[in-house]
């Protein structure tokens, strides 16, 4: 039997309820998707070749952009922090300031944002096209799990490559800071690296490491989910790609804050 | 035998399938005809377990496909071969790798045996020698035939064809239909094909069912369908313009 029409005054409440239900069901599907991917990651048969392909796709092909952005981020940090510290006569702390900024915050966050822009968007578009051209359905009807072939290798590749790319970003960034601080602005090399060894400890490195691991999961999870659930043809692929990049970027920054409050 | 009982499916409150009943005997070619947007592909997706019905059952040798999940559903699907509308070839693989893929992933055959079976499958569809090209490098008709080879290389008992001739010229339509008939004669699989190629499908079908507004309104041999007194069937067969759905 059809429901009686709502009083006009109650329609905003109905709309709000519908919106909340949509958010809750979307979150449920999103979580279930990760659960299925995790199950595929830890149960045999493991797919080595798809994993190596994804490591190449997400990691190796992002090297250039990581090197470039890492170097210039370190150079900008070196320049700005040097001028700030020189007001207090504390230029000697340039090395630890650059290193701590990169290792604890900027390295994991910027590396993740860069990989989201390059590999995450491509991942969504690739899966989206596979969805609309029925390639994912083809895998399913062959009794082969798309989760095992497409999603799980991407998430494992994210877990492996994000910390490595973050480490690379940090190293290149510190070198960029060295170029500006030492080679350009005249700080001594010993001061730059010596103070860094004094002030940067293992807890700082582990903070950056755990952040990069989390970002690796977030980016690959969001991007594969969005690609996997594309509809409405080419327009749908474009929309999903945009949503994947925006949502990944927001989640990276939100999660960075929460991890920053929890990790030492 | 495939048996469909009172199959209902709606999307966002709009009914697409309204109680379909159908029986497909083993070893026959059954073609479902009907206008575009009439629910033919949705119906096919229920048969292969890609969609679940709101109510009703799809029985494959007595097993309700709609009620199965996970490995149990995969066990039924191992008996299937599916040719999708656009071929659904993996574009990151060559045609040869596409055909080899199900054998590589689902069997324990050696590389040599897989290579032999892939050669045989490509020869059967008349494509020996083009295996090293990527799907985007071959014509639409060739892509369809590679899709046939991939669907049939595991020697499935039941093969589904989702509008296998859409977008092809009349010569290729006949070539593809002849290929289906020849493959069926040698392999004797049960085939369910969704198509709106009239009258070409009458030459290969054992049975033809007309799907209209979510129901099978007529089913029978090609001759019976052509003689049908049902005005909906006659309008469709003659291609007469009518009220747009």
Description:
- The complex is a heterodimer of chains A (264) and B (245).
- Chain A has 264 residues and is mainly alpha-helical.
- Chain A is built from nine helices and no strands.
- Chain A has one domain.
- Chain A is 84% helix and 0% strand.
- Chain A starts with 10 loop residues before the first helix and ends with a helix.
- Chain B has two domains: 160 residues, Rossmann fold (3-Layer(aba) Sandwich); 64 residues, no CATH class.
- Helix content of chain B is 35%, strand content 24%.
- Chain B has eight helices and ten strands.
- In chain B, strands 6-7-8-3-9-10 form a six-stranded mixed β-sheet.
- Chains A and B meet through helix 5 of A and helix 2 and helix 3 of B.
Structure, briefly:
With 264 residues, chain A is an all-alpha fold. Chain A is built from 9 helices and no strands.
Share in helix of chain B: 25-40%
Strand fraction of chain B:
15-25%
* β-strand number of chain A: 0
**Taking all residues together, what is the mean pLDDT of chain B?**
88
**β-strand amount of chain A:** under 5%
The total count of strands of chain B amounts to 10
C-alpha Rg of chain A (nearest Å): 23 Å
């Amino acid at each position: 039997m059809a429901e009686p029409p709502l009083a006009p005054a109650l329609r905003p409440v109905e709309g709000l309820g519908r919106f909340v239900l949509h958010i809750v069901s979307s979150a449920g599907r999103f979580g279930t998707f990760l659960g299925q991917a995790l199950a595929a990651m830890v149960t045999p048969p493991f797919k080595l070749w798809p994993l190596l392909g994804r490591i190449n796709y997400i990691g190796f092909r992002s090297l250039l952009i990581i090197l470039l952005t890492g170097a210039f981020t370190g150079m900008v940090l070196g320049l700005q922090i040097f001028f700030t510290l020189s007001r207090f006569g504390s230029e000697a702390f340039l090395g630890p300031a650059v290193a701590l900024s990169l290792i604890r915050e900027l390295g994991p966050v910027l590396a993740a944002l860069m990989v989201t822009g390059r590999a995450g968007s491509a991942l969504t578009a690739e899966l989206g096209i596979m969805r609309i051209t029925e390639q994912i359905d083809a895998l399913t009807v062959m009794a082969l799990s798309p989760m095992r072939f497409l999603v799980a290798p991407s998430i494992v590749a994210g877990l492996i490559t994000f910390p490595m790319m973050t480490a690379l970003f940090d190293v290149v960034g510190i070198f960029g800071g060295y170029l500006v601080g030492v080679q350009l602005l005249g700080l001594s090399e010993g001061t730059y690296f010596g103070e860094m060894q004094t002030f940067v400890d293992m807890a700082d490195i582990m903070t950056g490491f755990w952040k990069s691991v989390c970002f690796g999961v977030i980016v690959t999870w969001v991007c594969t989910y969005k690609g996997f659930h594309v509809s409405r043809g080419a327009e749908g692929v474009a929309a999903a790609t945009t949503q994947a990049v925006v949502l990944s970027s927001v989640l990276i920054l939100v999660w960075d804050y929460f991890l920053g409050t929890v990790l030492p | 035998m495939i048996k469909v009982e009172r199959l209902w499916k709606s999307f966002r409150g709009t009914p697409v399938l309204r109680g379909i009943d159908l029986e497909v005997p083993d070893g026959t070619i059954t073609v479902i005809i009907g206008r575009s947007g009439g629910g033919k592909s949705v119906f096919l997706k229920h048969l292969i377990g890609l969609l679940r019905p709101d109510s009703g059952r799809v029985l494959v040798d007595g097993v309700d496909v709609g009620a199965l999940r996970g490995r149990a559903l995969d066990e039924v699907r191992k008996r299937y071969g599916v040719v999708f509308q656009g071929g659904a070839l993996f574009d990151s693989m060559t045609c040869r790798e596409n055909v080899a893929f199900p054998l590589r992933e689902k069997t324990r055959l050696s590389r040599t045996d897989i290579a032999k079976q892939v050669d045989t499958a490509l020869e059967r569809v008349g494509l020996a020698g083009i295996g090293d090209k990527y799907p985007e490098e071959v014509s639409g008709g060739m892509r369809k035939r590679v899709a046939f080879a991939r669907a049939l290389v595991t020697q499935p008992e039941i093969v589904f064809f989702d509008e296998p001739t859409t977008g092809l010229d009349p010569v290729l339509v006949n070539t593809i239909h002849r290929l289906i008939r020849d493959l069926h004669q040698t392999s004797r699989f049960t085939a369910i094909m969704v198509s709106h190629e009239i009258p070409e499908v009458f030459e290969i079908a054992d049975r033809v069912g007309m799907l209209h507004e979510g129901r099978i309104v007529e089913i029978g041999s090609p001759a019976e369908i052509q003689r049908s007194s049902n005005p909906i069937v006659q309008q469709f067969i003659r291609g007469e313009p009518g009220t747009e759905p």
